[in-house]
Request: fold
Amino acid sequence: MEDSSPESEPLAQWSKAKRRTLLAFGAAIPLVLSFHFGMTALYEMPFNPVKERYGDEITSYMLPYFVQDWHLFAPDPIDRDKGVLVRAKKRQPDGSTVTTQWTDVTSPVLQQLYGERFWPSKGFRVSSGVPQLLESWRDPELQKMRVKNQVADTPGKGVRKGEKGKENPPLSQGEKDSRDEAIQFAQSFASAQASKLWGSDVEYVQVRIVTNEFPRFSQRYTRDTKGKVSYYDLAWMKPVKVEQ
Reply:
């Protein structure tokens, strides 16, 4: 029994409309793939004039579904870990304001993660994302240029003393947007944690990023060797409403 379905007909016997549709579809696929791979290449490239001009458009296309984040190899072993502390200013019934103690909000999430090997919670991604965003908003290529162009205060080194705190080259618009987004993310995270810990009548929240740098490998046999702990604090921020 012969198959008389349209799919079994030779291409030459198809109508012009069908052939045009097929050709258009066949031409669209490589165009779409070329556009996607081109945007991916631009996103992964070091800083260049195209990224300076169209950085926002490239980032908005890649995030959040197409961003490349490979961790298959680890040429640089982990040598430190980071944690997040939160504290708040809370209004008392008598009208006074009390500042809470710093509270570790990373360790409890880690303990929960260790107990959920098969279906782990995504809460750790949020807490670990705070220091990551706060420390990665600068463009790495622009930052290399800033370090290279950084003026020194030491006389006799052939460099001119410049204005303190001046960025050379200045922050790009993409860096400014990434910095603002990182601070807003930290503000939302701190607000949610403060609401859980101290209630809804919190007036200000603050975030502290703590870094524990592990002892060097050369000191592995030294008794009582300890790592180096450092931290920095964000400014006090008004809490924001976060949907739980």
